[in-house]
Amino acid sequence: MPTYFNENAQTWYCKFYYRDFMGRHRQKKKGGFKLQKEAREWERAFIRQNEGGPDITFNDLYAIYANDMGHRLRRSTLITKEHLVRTKILPYFGEFPVNQIGAHTIREWQNIMWDYKDSHGIGYSQTYLKAMNNQLSAIFNYAVRYFQLTSNPCHAAGSMGKKQAEQNQFWSPKEFHIFLDYLRENTEMHLLFSLLYYTGIRIGELLALTLADFYKEQGIININKSYHRINGQDFITPPKTPKSLRVVALPEFLQLQLESFVKEKGISRPSERLFNCTKYYISKYMTEACQQSGVAKIRIHDLRHSHASLLIERGFSPLLIAERLGHENIETTLNTYSHLYPHRQAELAQNLQEIYQYYEDL
Questions:
Q1: Coil, strand, or helix at residue 82?
Q2: 230: Cα separation from own chain's centroid
Q3: Among candidates 13, 82, 5, 70, which has minimal Cα distance to 46?
Q4: Any bridge partners for residue 33, and if so which?
Q5: Distances in Å between the alpha carbon of 79 and those of 70, 90, 231?
Q6: Positions in the chain short of pLDDT 70
Q7: What is the pLDDT of residue 22?
Q8: Half-sphere CA count of 216, side-chain side, radius 13 A
């Protein structure tokens, strides 16, 4: 691997040939290195990434994977994945050649993740463990497909964690209104939490709402984008899935509260966001309100589950609930909330009994 010294700049550079992803012979030049060693290391890394086979290091594989996925995933999704990989996966697998990572190595990593506890003695949630394992497996699948890796070692190692928590937490209307009473003096938080509980929209969807999305004559809000705050910057992105693009009808009390709030805050520009706060601030406020009101703490996202629970209890169909929540298909609704339906079996059986008895008594 020849390297060269630039007398004028007093730095090292490398100049070499390689084959690109289409098999074409190309030349590459890169300069500005203070040390000859740095120029050689950069050349080796470049060739590994562009001509890489299954002996590529996991660090180099992930760099290629992340660049590729950057063209296919939402920015917020990519940043979330990147944080997970850089903090939970690369420290353990980064220097390994990909084809030397076996099922036993994956199992050792899984055990470390299982056993982790923070300063408060709290470990990773079952769903987060599942997300870690899925992301690692996705990277190995990429190596199998594009870098001639013979098999994905995660398959032999087995999974860890669970796709869903044991049971979604939610508030009953009584619990929510006890919580809501604490917010009476803060009209913004009172309205914000009322919207989350009585519409079931996602927190990112709510924080992206603008004046133009509120149609007071029709009593609806238009869900067409999502808000994210990433590394101190605000981002507005398309919503989670195509079915997330939807119109949500508001009960009359929310229509009136929202109209009053817009007037109170002097919101006049159509593009102006209705709520200029972050998820972190809302979560912190929610924790305080739970402590003061005595209501059991749940996550912000659990308000969405609470809304679904309320609709199920009121007898609305899974199809209507799926449309209101913006689920991609009805199976998502049924899989997520199936545990809330069994208690209605007795009611269903009684209704069938009444139908039968009616015709028997004719």
A1: helix
A2: 13
A3: 13
A4: 12
A5: 9, 15, 10
A6: 1, 20-23, 49-53, 164-168, 338-345, 362
A7: 58
A8: 12
Q: What is residue 9's three-state secondary structure? A: coil
pTM for this entry: 0.70
CA–CA dist 232, 4 (Å, integer): 42
What are the distances in angstroms from CA 212 to CA 77, 188, 246, 272? 26, 18, 14, 8
Tell me, what's the pLDDT at 332?
78
Predicted local confidence at residue 103, as pLDDT: 95
The predicted structure's pLDDT at residue 313: 82
DSSP class of residue 251? Answer: P
Q: Write the CA distances from 163 to 125, 132, 251, 335, integer angstroms.
A: 10, 11, 33, 11
**Helical residues (DSSP H) of 227-278, grouped into ranges:** 252-265
- Identify the helix (H) or strand (E) that includes residue 170: none
- Take residue 3 and report the two structure tokens written for it: 């390297």
Which amino acid, residue 62?
Answer: Y
Residue 11's pLDDT is 95
Q: Which residue has the tokens 């470390």?
A: 112
The pLDDT, as a whole number, for residue 181 is: 94
What gap in Å lies between CA 198 and CA 310, rounded to an integer?
A: 9
d(CA 101, CA 98): 6
Number of residues written out for the chain: 362
Q: Report d(CA 27, CA 14) in Å as an integer.
A: 11
Distances in Å between the Cα of 355 and the Cα atoms of 10, 75, 317, 352, 361 are 93, 54, 20, 5, 10
Q: Which domains does the chain show, CATH number per domain? A: 3-51 (no CATH), 58-157 (1.10.150.130), 173-340 (1.10.443.10)
pLDDT at residue 23 in the model: 64
Nearest to 340 by CA among 362, 310, 319: 310
The SS3 call for residue 275 is coil
- Helix intervals (H) in 75-172: 75-84, 90-93, 103-115, 126-146, 153-157
Distances from the Cα of 115 to the Cαs of 109, 122, 123, 129, 201, in angstroms?
10, 10, 7, 11, 35
> What pLDDT does residue 209 have?
97
